Backbone:
């Protein structure tokens, strides 16, 4: 049964609830008077949250490839550091390209520089990305900024950075084979060696790939059918493998050099000291790309109806492990490895390439 006391208390509570507090009024006035300030606070909060999520390593699982980003055009250059992949790409239709970066944790892709000449070689040091466009060698900070032209004429389609220098070889570009060298900070470009390339009907015919470490400059001489090591000054050549049919891609791992034969589809290994080259696998796709470390070599096999299969080959040979199917007409254009994941650029068509990651 309601009493007058109950009714009085109920009326009092309703009245109190309907009257805004002084703090509420002040807050409303502040919101009305300073919308810009509120936006600034929100922006500051967003910045603070973003700062709490710096780029991280690969988060991909082992069962299904993780899509990291989509690039317009074909990917030619490919390299990585602890948290990012770096690429150069070119869209044939439209004649435009870019140098960009993809976070390994899948949190985004960003263009660093637009290019108007087709980019090819790409390599890194601690702070910068080096890349070729046409016959020009340029550099840009990994964080972005202004592009620096290191050499207006470097004539290299494949490059490698070692210590304080950038080295380059021409690939199939032009009639001459050469090794070029320039300080990474800029300066005079030098041709360490040059020679006229032998004519061959079936390519590739040039100095196709280059890798450099403290022991020397390693080059796949596709036209000469040999794998050669030069000193860091370009002299004292040592033939590590001869009479090998069109060696193409290569990777240095510890005391060994891995390379493949562009047309025959064979994966080979040879000691840095030289000796007989040994076949690890066959059936690779034409001009397959490779990446290698102590855990194994990753490359592509030729599948049915022009499809490809990403596979792992044990470092010293043995049974191949399938990684992922690549349906025709798609192709793998680049592969990279770190301790956690393998990464690859999968060309869908002339306007689209997808970057993937898969835990190892």
Residues:
């Amino acid at each position: 049964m309601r009493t007058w006391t109950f009714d009085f208390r109920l009326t009092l509570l309703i009245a109190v609830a309907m009257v805004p507090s002084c703090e509420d009024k002040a807050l409303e006035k502040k919101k009305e008077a300073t919308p810009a300030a509120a936006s600034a606070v929100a922006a500051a909060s967003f910045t603070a949250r973003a700062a709490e999520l710096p780029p991280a390593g690969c988060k991909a699982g082992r069962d299904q490839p993780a899509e990291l980003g989509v690039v317009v055009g074909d990917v030619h250059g490919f390299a990585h550091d602890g948290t990012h992949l770096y690429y150069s790409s070119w869209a044939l239709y439209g004649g435009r390209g870019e140098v960009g970066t993809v976070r390994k944790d899948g949190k985004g892709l960003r263009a660093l520089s637009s290019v108007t000449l087709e980019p090819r070689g790409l390599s890194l040091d601690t702070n910068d990305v080096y890349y070729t466009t046409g016959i020009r060698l340029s550099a840009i900070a990994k964080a972005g900024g202004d592009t620096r032209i290191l050499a207006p004429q470097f004539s290299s389609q494949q490059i490698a950075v070692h210590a304080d220098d950038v080295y380059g070889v021409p690939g199939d570009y032009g009639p001459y084979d050469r090794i070029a060298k320039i300080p990474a900070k800029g300066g005079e470009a030098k041709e360490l060696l040059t020679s006229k390339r032998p004519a061959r009907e079936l390519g590739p015919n040039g100095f196709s790939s280059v890798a450099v470490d403290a022991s020397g400059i390693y080059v796949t001489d596709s036209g000469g059918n040999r794998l050669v090591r030069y000193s860091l000054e370009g002299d004292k050549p040592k033939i590590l493998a001869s009479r090998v049919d069109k060696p193409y891609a290569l990777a240095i791992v510890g005391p060994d050099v891995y390379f493949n034969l562009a047309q025959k589809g064979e994966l080979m290994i040879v000691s840095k000291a030289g000796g007989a080259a040994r076949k690890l696998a066959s059936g690779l796709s034409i001009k397959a790309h490779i990446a290698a470390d102590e855990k194994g070599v990753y490359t592509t096999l030729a599948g049915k109806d022009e499809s490809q299969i990403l596979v792992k080959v044990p470092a010293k040979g043995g049974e191949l492990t399938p990684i992922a199917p690549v349906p025709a007409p798609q192709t793998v254009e680049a592969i990279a490895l770190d301790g956690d994941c393998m990464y690859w650029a999968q060309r869908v068509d002339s306007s689209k390439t997808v970057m993937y990651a898969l835990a190892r």
Q: What stands out?
A: The CA atoms of residues 65 and 358 lie 5 Å apart.
